[in-house]
Design a protein that fits this description.
This protein has 4 helices and no strands. Helix 1 runs antiparallel to helix 2. It starts with a helix and ends with a helix. The chain has helices at 3-30, 42-74, 93-98, 106-109. Helix content is 65%, strand content 0%. By secondary structure, it is mainly α. It has a domain at 3-78.
Length: 110
């Protein structure tokens, strides 16, 4: 991989890390406990609890993405960067730029 492409990937990863960290903060705000003294009604409380569960699942997914992004960021200078972990073929640059946290080519990811 040439230096220009590597720099483009580094910038994309940094941007994705920043966006992901912002998303984590937003999800943490949404998933704060619902105070029982709030008079929002039984149905509304059930809705709020359901929405909180959905937000917590999204939070876990975003936190996992951040871990993967930071791992990939640390491996950018490795000679094997950009190779699929399963088949060892080159991952297309478009996929790396679209999903920099992915360590598998399209065929092996599915």
């Amino acid at each position: 991989m040439d230096e220009k492409t590597t720099n483009e990937i580094k910038e994309k990863i940094i941007t994705e890390i920043e966006k992901t960290e912002k998303s984590i903060l937003e999800y943490k705000e949404i998933t704060k406990p619902i105070a029982p003294e709030n008079a929002i009604g039984r149905i509304s409380r059930m809705d709020a609890i359901n929405n909180k569960s959905v937000a917590e699942a999204a939070l876990r997914k975003v936190e996992e993405k951040l871990i993967k992004l930071k791992h990939v960021q640390g491996q950018l200078d490795d000679k094997d960067f950009g190779l699929c972990l399963k088949c060892k073929k080159q991952i297309p640059i478009g996929r790396i730029l679209l999903m920099p946290q992915s360590r598998y080519c399209i065929n092996c990811a599915s």
